[in-house]
Amino acid sequence: MKTTLFTTAAVLALTTGIAQAQLVIEPGSDDRINWASLDEFAAAHPDLEGQSFNILGPWLGGDQELFMSVLAYFNEVTGAEAQYSGSDSFEQQIVIDSEAGSPPDVAVFPQPGLAADLAAKGFLRPLGDDTAQWLRENYAAGESWAELGTYEGPEGEEHLYAFPYKADVKSLVWYVPENFEDAGYGIPETYEELKALTEQIAEEGETPWCIGLGSGGATGWPATDWVEDLMLRTATPEQYDQWVTNEMPFNDPVVVNAIEEFGWFAKNPDFVSGGTGAVTSTDFRESPAGLFEFPPSCYMHRQASFIPTFFPEGTEVGQDADFFYLPAPESGDLGQPVLGGGTMFAVLSDNPAALAFIDFLKTPAAHEIWMAQQGFLTPHTGANPEAYGDETVRRMGQILLDATVFRFDASDLMPGAIGAGAFWTGMIDFVGGSSAQEVADQIQDTWASLN
Amino acid sequence: MEGMAGQKSSLAWAVNLAAFLLVLLWTIPTLGLFVSSFRDRDQISTSGWWQSFSGSEQTGFVRSGTADDQVQQDGVYVIEGSVVEGSQELSAWGTGARQPAEFQPGDTTEIDDGIQLTVTEEGTYRMTSAEPFELSRGERIFTTTISPPEFTTENYGRVLTAGGLGRAFMNTMTVTIPATVIPILIAAFAAYALAWMQFPGRALLTAAVVGLLVVPLQVALIPLLRLHNDLGIGKGYIGIWLAHTGFGLPLAVYLLRNYMVGLPREIIESARVDGATDFQIFRRIILPLSFPALASFAIFQFLWVWNDLLVATVFLGNTREQLVMTGLLRELMGSRGGEWEILATSAFISIAVPLLVFFAMQKYLVRGLLAGSVKGG
Amino acid sequence: MELFWLAISTIAIGVFGCVAWFWGSNWILDKIYPPRGDRAGDNIRRANQIRPWLFLGPAIVFLTMYLVYPVLDSLWRSLFNSDGAQFVGADNYLWLLGDDKFQESMLNNMLWLLVVPALSTLFGLLAAQLTDRIKWGNIGKSLIFMPMAISFVGAGVIWKFIYEYRAAGETQIGLLNWIVTQFGGEPQIWLTLPGWNNFFLMIVLVWIQTGFAMVILSAALRGIPEETIEAAILDGASPLQVFFKIKVPQIMGTIAVVWTTITIVVLKVFDIVFVMTNGQWGTQVLANLMYDWMFRGTPDYGRGSAIAIVLMILVTPIMVWNIWNARKEVR
User: Can you tell me whether residue B118 is helix, strand or coil?
Assistant: First the structure.
């Protein structure tokens, strides 16, 4: 039966062919979008007609469709043909492809560390000082964005190699507003209040937090985000930067302190749903579900802006669930630190259309078209915030634009063996019972052993 | 023999029972996946698949109407509606998240000053107030409901209607069939040489084949893709056939050689005496006799190529035109891969063809061929 | 439809190319050294010296290009540092000796080697024997074989529904914890239980590989000449005796093949560990450790290659045993 169904569908799909990417918004129709910027871009690149190039990235499923909807406009205005393909083993594939000499023309890096490595091996093309200058001028906190894409080339001199496009905000705490109202909890304005609220909820016999570190092969990464966020709330941005480059060792008291802060939340069985044992084993995709159980298994969940995808079906963000900014301490002058991430576009071939594509990403329209749909945040100050599809995303975008201190996900900036290895496993060990000092010493040892 | 009948039937019973238990043990995990492929994501993450056949108790909430929905009846303001859907049965309800089952159906409670809420056994609610309502957002009514077992074919619908599935199916077939047949052909000849031909270094070569079985695929990817690029093959069907042939060969040669070594010496000797060349012996005697082994290996190689994603993405690429089934199914699951219902469904759709192959091949695995030829030879 | 014909013709070209080589090269050989005429004996002898290499030729070319060359490549790379620019000699190997994760992986791999091949072969033999004797044997076989047909990612999900953990008091969606709680026990986080978690991972591989063992062993069991079995039954041997004294000795060679193959699969076990624990909680194995160093974040191909070389060296005892066996077969 299944086989018949299958063959029928196969034949059907074969005869109807693959649907072509459509322009999701009729050009010129939505006045929130800067259509003129697209035309200017097309006018500046008149010779792309018929050129083709391919883009390799980590986006699949919904993200892939959304990105391809933006790509369709590039193809439309230039007459070029840009092809995107996504891979869940992007990191492996980009290494194999570039080492073997058949790289894609453009690659979308989710982790700057890997891009830096490939730049050092000479696989990436410098994007030019103009583009670096453009980033400084047109992105909020532009200097730090430009730095994120600037790496040492094969000769050791620094160039801008990767262009940030699409950002994530990580310093968010998700909650169910009505559960807060029913219980009489207020939104904490300072880090101290957040800790007081945590204690208050626990004293009332409820569980304040849902934390899940599970992620199959990447188990442990949600904890690194926690530690980074808390690092920004217990140490200066300068110390954070030194930590990222190992100028300040991983087992420095400052870092150990931030890990212990995380332990204050995650290692107290009264503070986390299911007890500490559940923290390491619960999948991060399933951990927010506790917010939506009745009675609630927890009241708060710290996770980046993408997490609503994993809320139960029918959950309306803004009504059934909402977020607040993970607040900064009242004491001290750490400002309003925001932790975030971003994907980086790099060019790997000499294809002129590929280089032109980076210019396309500078147009406000390239940002606004995705903003108007979903799941996209941008620090592009020239993009119209009105274009955001809904109020919630606009508020996230505002956090990004308002940050007094903006720092990137440290684990993405550290060498892979640390940021995508020892740091992850270390956090699992830490929650599993090791002390912060032990774990930090071990990570530092691994770091020291890298040549 | 007649006296042994009783003993025989009890033995048959024992064999049947033991086989049944073994099969059951091996099937239960897969059964879980099969059942899950007919459930939606919320169901999968809230109850075990084995519980899906009985009615399930669920706690959730329904929002009441807002001030816009109120009507005035007999001098009071009323908002009415239902808290259940379809054939759900209400067993308890409440108004606070912490006590979602505070009240029984039929109870009435006062939620705010002067606002009364009643939820009946049929699942209808009635909220009354002397003053006009000022609700801009519906009041949450928490319900504990018992739903009858519910299954959906939506997952299958979603996967089977995915754009490009037909194309991906053809691509997979184009990759799989040559990548199964070519290594068998090459391996069969090599296996015969290693088993029945005399030449120096035979034992060493056999051992080398075993040694090559252990080469991890990951170390081979970069050098081989570079080789393909240097040779001008690049990424494409030729490249992926060659790669699968290379990776599948050691197992094929090893399995087939060991099978062929076990074939009766007399047949081959007598053929040689009759003046048959090695090529004739191979084609007329060895190949037919080795059918069970050839079929077994064909099944494994087919499966391995069919389920492979890594070799396909590296050697074929994964643009729309080149995408294989596994790649397409992976795309459906999304970047963060939490969609277990799609995964479960995909697993069953992609298992259909290999199982069909297994059934088709099974008749070649029977003893008749071998026993018959031995007697005939 | 165009695509369909393209697919068919490419398949045909691929397969025919292969057939053409074997048929054509033998034909040419027979033309050069015709096995008849006055020099027939001499010709046959010469042709027989060349013919093995015609038979082996394509296999040797493929094995050399696709397996030997990458092995040499990684051997070479294992002597270099992370970006391949600097020759570091045996540094990567020395580093391995002192690395905790490497030691953990070696120990775990040994554990896997002891458990999985034995259990898979045993269950495979049992399944083959039992399903050969019953009416619904083919269906039974297909069901036991099914895990082999499911991709590793699918297998990961299947076992998630078995091992999944939910806190005590919540609805368990993992079968194992549900059973445990039904009997009043505490739910366990199976995949993080030190020591035991390795066995929970091994069960998955046994579950998959039993189908392989069953298919191969079943073919061998059916290949046993009926006369020997009939003779034993006439001599009054019990079914158990027939199985252990007549059948098992006759398929000992095949059992060894199955054992060896599964041992090698275990040696490079990767997917299960990668999908289910990624080597955390003390479940690291060599192949996954190698993957981590080769492709994770900033790759260190030197260290990754060194681990690969160690992994390949571990197969030596099996190779030696096979040489010894092959020599014995030369009769």
Answer: strand
**A12 contact residues in C (CB cutoff 8 A):** none
Class of domain B158-376: mainly alpha
Helix-, strand-, coil-residue percentages of chain C, each rounded to 5 = 75, 0, 25
Token pair 């064909």 is found at B298
What ipTM describes this predicted complex?
Answer: 0.86
Cite the residue boundaries of each domain of chain A with CATH code 3.40.190.10.
Answer: 29-169+340-408, 172-338+410-449
Evaluate if residue C143 carries a pLDDT over 60.
yes
Looking at the structure, give the CATH architecture of the domain made up of residues A29-169+340-408.
Answer: 3-Layer(aba) Sandwich (3.40)
CB A61 within 8 A of CB B332: yes
Number of domains within chain C: 2
Residue C84 lies in a domain: no
> Which residues of chain A make contact with C294, given a CB cutoff of 8 A?
95
Same domain, C183 and C254: yes
What six digits make up the tokens of B109?
A: 């409670």
- Strand (E) or helix (H) holding B353: helix B340-362
Interface of B with C in 196-255 (CB under 8 A): 197-199, 202-216, 218-220, 222-224, 227, 237, 241-243, 245-247, 249-251, 253-255
Residue C287 lies in a domain: yes
Residues 244-303 of C with CB under 8 A from A: 274-278, 280-281, 292-300
The mean pLDDT of chain A is 86
Q: What percent of chain B has pLDDT over 70?
A: 92
Give tens-digit pLDDT for B299-330. Answer: 889 988 988 888 888 888 777 777 888 888 77
pLDDT tens digits, C174-231: 899 999 998 988 888 888 888 898 999 999 999 999 988 998 888 788 778 788 888 8
Average pLDDT of span B69-80: 84
Torsion of CA B92, B96, B97, B101, to 10 degrees: -20
Q: A321 forms bridges with which residues in the sheet?
A: A317
Name, in order, each residue with C-beta under 8 angstroms of B265's C-beta and a sequence gap of 6 or more: C331
| Domain match, C61 and C127 both | no
Please classify residue B188 by burial: count the beta carbons closer than 10 Å to its beta carbon, then call 0-12 exposed, 13-18 middle and 19+ buried.
buried
With beta carbons under 8 A apart, name residues in chain C contacting B347: 150-151, 153-154, 157-158
DSSP letter at C64 equals: I
Question: Among A427, A207, A428, which Cα is nearest to C191's?
Answer: A428
B207 vs C7, C159, C323: nearest CB: C323
Measure A92 CA to nearest chain C CA, in Å. Answer: 5
CATH code: domain of residue C210: 1.10.3720.10
Q: How far is CA C213 from CA B252, B357, C135, C228, C259, in A?
A: 15, 18, 21, 23, 8
Distance between CA atoms of B14 and C134, rounded to whole angstroms? 11
Mutation for B interface: C61, C83, C150, most B CBs within 10 A: C150
Are B370 and C223 in contact, with CB atoms under 8 Å apart? yes
Please tell me the predicted confidence (pLDDT) of residue B129: 84
In this structure, how many other beta carbons lie within 10 angstroms of the beta carbon of residue C103?
Answer: 13
Contact C11 B174 (CB under 8 A): yes
Binned at pLDDT 50, 70 and 90, residue C123 comes out as very high
CATH number of A172-338+410-449: 3.40.190.10
* Contacting residues for A30 by C-beta, under 8 A, at least 6 apart: A372
Residue of B50, B213, B363 best to disrupt the C interface, most CBs of C under 10 A: B213
Q: At residue C331, does pLDDT exceed 60?
A: no
Q: Are residues C298 and C199 in the same domain?
A: yes
Chosen for mutation from C296, C300, C301, C307 (greatest number of chain A CBs closer than 10 Å) is: C296
